[in-house]
Predict the 3D structure of the following.
Amino acid sequence: MSLKAKAQDKVERAGIANYSFDKDILVMCGVRYAIEACDCGEPDCDGVRLRKAFDGVRRTIQ
């Protein structure tokens, strides 16, 4: 199973319906997450880790 498929399974098991993919980036409720392999070794780990993805653009509230 690919990382993208594992991430989709994780999101659906959590009951989240408001998500999509932009290439290999998971977008949930407007927040972008990079999908990474996880090898933490925890017994309940599903092998996928989500980290907030930053596109390098900083927005300043004025």
About this structure: The CA atoms of residues 32 and 54 lie 8 Å apart.
